[in-house]
Amino acid sequence: MTVLSNRLGGTTGVELEADPPAALLTEDGQARTLGAKIRAYVALTKPRVIELLLITTLPVMFLAAKGVPDLGLVLFTLVWGTMSAGSANAVNCFIDRDIDAKMRRTRRRPLARHQVSPGAALVFGAALGVISTVGFLITVNALAAALSVGAILFYVFVYSLVLKRRTKQNVVWGGIAGCMPVLIGWAAVTGSLAWTPFVLFGVVFLWTPPHTWTLAMRYREDYAVAGIPMLPVVASEKRVVVESLVYTWATVLCSLALWPVAGLTPVYGAVAIILGAVFLVEGHRLLARVNRGLTGALLRPMRFFHLSNSYLALLFTAVAIDFLFQ
Predict the structure, then answer these.
(1) How many H-runs (helices) and E-runs (strands) does the chain carry?
(2) Which residues of 152-164 are buried (b: 16+ CB within 10 A; e: fewer)?
(3) How many angstroms separate the CA atoms of 244 and 212, rounded?
């Protein structure tokens, strides 16, 4: 149960982390106090990234239950899901420690600053994965546990080790890992899968590329220095914007497909139409700016990025509360 670099709301994870006071570090950068060590290990799990899991998992559980799900089940699913995501993120930090040190956006992560040793980070990530899997098996169900393990393995071995450094399609296919929470949330409630969670899976899958690419436009130099072939590094700004707009249209259409597939009320339909219209308008505005010859910061890609955060959060909120109108 994990996610790439998808982030929501004002806590996007793109802000530079503040340097810890020198008094809290040893000469080699290791955390000196217990509190500093705990904060360093928590940072390995990328808490801001995990926020996406809560916003996509919980509404799906409401939808699967056709009302308020068992609160104990919700708690266990979110706790183990958070640990599962933290496992994948910690191992990702271990794998990416070389490029994290080069990128302005990530160079203050614990491994890049030597606050945690690589070996300790790897053990920590593996331990979280084992605990979360056992937790899912004991308190939720085997299907949710299997999906969680699959997400961890995909994020670590397919995305982090293969796709990220080798192809401009890295976030397209790597985004599969970030879609798994919707399947896990549904499986936790029903013990099975159906077309409805797969449509929501499609929404997140299609939403991920334009969301990530517009962020990468802002930090293009970071990715170029680190040798990561993100689309904005290897393609023109116009191509990035056009491809982002294609995925944006596909995202909105997929969100509307959920309406009949899940049997949702006109309330969800109205929300999806309004949110989709706003999302598309901003995408076309971005295209208009690039067509006028604007470039770099003048394109304001972060406007689209932040709007995409709000779009997904509000859409899934509509999914969660739709049962109130049935």
Answers:
(1) 14, 0
(2) bebbbebbbeebb
(3) 9
pLDDT, tens digit, for every residue of 227-252? Answer: 999 999 999 999 999 999 999 999 99
Residues in the chain: 326
How far apart, in whole angstroms, are the C-alpha atoms of residue 45 and residue 29?
Answer: 19
DSSP letters for 8-29: BTTB-S-SPPPPPPGGGB-TTS
The pLDDT of residue 27 is: 46
Quick one: tokens of 165?
A: 């450094």
Q: Whose CA is closest to 152, among 309, 1, 293, 37?
A: 1
Task: Report the Cα 302 to chain-centroid distance in Å.
Answer: 17
pLDDT of residue 32: 63
CB 207 within 8 A of CB 40: no
The radius of gyration of the chain from alpha carbons, rounded to an integer in Å, stands at: 20
DSSP annotation of 157: I
**Global pTM?**
0.89
**Is the pLDDT at 9 greater than 50, yes or no?**
no
Buried b (16+ CB within 10 A) or exposed e, 233-246: bebebeebbbbbbe
Residue scoring higher pLDDT (248 or 21): 248
**Pairwise CA distance, residues 52 & 78, whole Å:** 11
Using one digit for the tens of pLDDT, what is the confidence trace for 146-186? Answer: 999 999 999 999 999 999 999 999 999 999 999 999 999 99
Pair 287, 221: CB distance under 8 Å: no
